[in-house]
Amino acid sequence: MLKTVKIIGLQRAYFASASPSASFANNRSPVITAKKIQFNLFADELRVASGQNTKFGKLKLVSDGWRHRKSAGDFFILHPVKEAFQAHALSNVSFTQLSVRQQLIANLKTNGVLDPTAYQAEGIPAVLNGDHVLLAAETGCGKTYTYLIPIMEQLLQRKLHERQREFNSPLVLILTPGRELAQQIGRVAESLVEGTGIKTRILLGGRTKQQMMNPHFEDIDILVSSFGALSKLISCGIYKTDQVRWVVLDEADTLLDDSFNSKLLHLMKRFPFHKNHLYDLGENIQGTQLVLAAATMPSNMTELLGQILNVETMEEVVSPNLHRLMSHVTQRFLRVKKTERANILFDLVQKDTKRRRPTIIFSNKTPTCDFISMYLNEANFPCVNLHGDMLLKLRLGQFEKFQQGEINVLSTTDVASRGLDTTRAAHVINFDFPLYMADYIHRIGRIGRVGSRGNCLVTNLVSSQAEIGAVQRIEHSARTDHPLANVDANVKGIIRRRIKRSLGIEE
Length: 507
Fold this sequence. Notes:
The chain is of the alpha/beta class. It has helices spanning 43-50, 84-87, 102-110, 118-128, 143-158, 179-192, 208-213, 227-235, 252-255, 261-268, 301-305, 341-355, 366-378, 392-395, 398-403, 437-444, 465-480, 491-502, and strands at residues 3-6, 30-34, 41-42, 75-78, 132-136, 172-176, 200-203, 222-226, 246-250, 289-294, 314-318, 330-335, 359-362, 384-386, 409-412, 427-430, 457-462.
């Protein structure tokens, strides 16, 4: 059983509005509105519904009728039930009270971070205590600072960064599933260590063979890297792991997915997670602290982690909003014909362009992602394209064009749904609706983040039978005020198990 620290958040306020400027204090404010008005739900009714144990399949849903071929044109809308600031509430303690030194606090202020959120106020001390920690919280609530701040504080307290070490022997290893996220975290780390003497390096994949042939050697305290690149360079001895005291798996759900986990666990067995490096273990004994950060987790997480550490030594810091629908963002679900999606997308992007609203469009597959980019660019809507199958020289800088405001439309696959800081985005369009709850959580988490603009919007185009089951579970969650059910981030594992069941093979 994992040790757990539950964040005591604000009580859910069951208020909603059809427009962002309307009052949140009216009990007859809409929570759900639909084309068929008998499916409308209001705030006072939600209080009653949330107190009932209404099982899935027993409650009448708008989306129940969407399997019929004549259901095209139907829709329902989930309205905000909280103000944006309520979802990422600030703590009543300061960074100073959390034992963070003034140099780091000054650097945080330079980055526009003045006070910790309620989640950071719980998570920072947990990491400072030296236990292995799982930071489980909704997207966009500041998990990166939650582990960076206490790790840097410990580095400075113990002056480990001042000791002589071999080149390419980092003290802190931060692993991510993708290049863009590694780049983003690395830049945050660089801004946070300004004036501290801590040395950071960002390592990206795509040029691994070149780095093997012509390796770069330097003093490194914090190494931020995409997993694929680092595992190869460690294997050939270019980077050394014997001095690593902290390992962070950012977007741990993706790294623990079946796509990665066998190679990841092989790498993790290099580190002595069984020892706690903050205790006095002797001159020559060094332990490593493990920190996981994620908005969703695979169902087999405990089993996987049990291969490298005693899971009872891990402390969970869990947000009350984990696996819940974003309560401060409008979410529209439109039942449409597949052939109509391009025209609907054109209309949506045209409106966003007039309003200068930055938009992210998600597809399930690379060809669709490419099609959307070409379609919009030919229609004179500048759009940048990003997916995992792109050549490195084409992929590098694509996300930055959107981040820096050069282009306001990003067409992407789920490669951009995990961890990326998209605070300037205001509209997410699911051109292909995701088939898995974890993917939906991550995609809509690109908006409504700490520091995001208000009036954010999600538009979901639902066009295939396979997508309707996921929509029904989301609608059921909204109507009962329960967390999303069956959130398993191990998508590869889900697919593998389904194939085995279809073939009559037992696990």
